[in-house]
Amino acid sequence: xxxxxxxxxxxxxxxxxxxxxxxxxxxxxxxxxxxxxxxxxxxxxxxxxxxxxxxxxxxxxxxxxxxxxxxxxxxxxxxxxx
Length: 82
Fold this sequence. Notes:
Layout: H1 2-8, E1 11-18, H2 21-30, E2 35-38, H3 62-65, E3 71-78
Antiparallel strand pairs: 1-3, 2-3
């Protein structure tokens, strides 16, 4: 992958859909700075603005996380040039 990045670009965008609480936790552990958002946008019933996903994944119980699924994870990976 490093050779490919050096040839074309120095950044890769990782985007994945997570369907289970277990997979979501794994992604949050491996990519602690990644952005998680709803696959299907949700609206705040009072303001009619899009709701942002704000649950602390690593601390949340499955019973709190499962109704929020599926989620999408987005993370930018930059090549470190040494």
